[in-house]
Design brief:
- The chain is elongated and about 80 Å long.
- It is built from 13 helices and 13 strands.
- 45% of the residues lie in helices and 21% in strands.
- Helix 4 runs antiparallel to helix 5.
- The chain is α/β, with parallel strands linked by helices.
- It has a six-stranded mixed β-sheet, with helices on both faces. It has a five-stranded mixed β-sheet with strand order 4-3-5-13-6, sandwiched between helices. It has a two-stranded antiparallel ribbon with strand order 1-2.
Length: 310
């Protein structure tokens, strides 16, 4: 249950927003650092909002804090108006969520996660953009996304990326393909096969090529493309053997035979927040739904085996 904010609390909040530390805010207000810390704690407890986290030794404001700060600046003497803003933020966080991800995750993961999230938070506007990893990294640095996911690593010291899920690449073939009757595919089985692969700058492609070279495997031909979805579509036509991540493969499970690949080709989903602001409460709620999804994810090859045993 929220409680009304008093003048001293509202006075302390913008001081912390402006200075970035409770020590500097205390000097600005001619009081002590423990006093400001206590007032800040009281504000967060009274409003029920997450307003700051600690980032590189400074207090980093959330989206809710920035919106509340704008309200305080405009209505410093209007306590009723500030309370109304707190109530709105408590209900819907920042009110919007900007998500970026690679196209494969946009197809194989996001529809289910956003469905679950929107059922819990129908009032939140979600903007989902599917672009390549480089564009995701740039978007995070410029504050265009609140959170972004990729099956390639975010190589940037400014981004604190975390691993959400680890899996392995799979082979996808037409059900009538010569390899479709197998329980698994070894790279030796790909000799003289037509391979459907991602572009040379893709991490899965690079790992797979190293494995082929290590085993001295030569293929009949290679069809290279930008998107895993295109590989799955071509495999469904019988064009060749596709190597893709399991998330997009699961979408085409009815049309393709999905086979484990050995030696293993690791696939990892990385997540990063924008360094411009601390994650909002609504962004943290969304990542909780993402974690739930990946925790329940079953490799499509294992899923089919489970159905056959049933």
């Amino acid at each position: 249950m929220s409680r009304p904010l008093n003048f001293r609390q509202i006075e302390a909040f913008p001081a912390v927003m402006q200075t970035g530390t409770t020590t500097a805010a205390a000097a600005l207000l001619h009081t002590t650092q423990p006093s400001v810390s206590r007032l800040l704690s009281q504000i967060q407890h009274a409003t029920g909002l997450k307003l700051f986290d600690i980032h590189k030794g400074r207090l980093r404001p959330t989206h809710e804090a920035r919106q509340l700060f704008d309200t305080v600046q405009r209505h410093f003497l209007g306590l009723d108006r500030i309370e109304q803003s707190v109530a709105v933020l408590r209900k819907s966080g920042a009110g919007s969520l900007r998500v970026g991800c690679t196209p494969a995750l946009g197809l194989g993961v996001m529809p289910q996660v956003i469905h679950a999230f929107s059922r819990l938070h129908p009032e939140v506007h979600v903007n989902l953009q599917t672009v390549g990893t480089h564009a995701l990294r740039e978007g995070l640095l410029y504050g265009l996304y609140d959170v972004a996911l990729s099956t390639a690593a975010f190589h940037d010291p400014q981004l604190d990326a975390v691993s959400l899920h680890k899996a392995s690449a799979v082979c996808v073939v037409h059900p009538g393909h010569a390899l479709a009757h197998r329980d698994a595919v070894h790279v030796r089985d790909l000799k003289q096969q037509v391979l459907l692969t991602l572009n040379a700058d893709d991490e899965i492609h690079q790992q797979f090529q190293r494995t082929l070279q290590q085993h001295r495997i030569e293929c009949a031909a290679t069809v290279e493309t930008t998107y895993s979805v295109t590989i799955c579509m071509m495999a469904a036509q019988g064009t060749g053997v596709g190597i893709v991540n399991p998330y997009v493969a699961s979408v085409f499970a009815r049309d393709l035979k999905i086979l484990p690949l050995s030696p293993r080709c690791p696939v990892e989903v990385s997540m990063a927040f924008s360094p411009q602001s601390a994650p909002s409460a609504i962004a943290e709620e969304f990542t909780a739904r993402l974690r739930d999804h990946f925790q329940a994810f079953v490799m499509p090859t294992a899923r089919k085996a489970q159905k056959e045993r049933a």
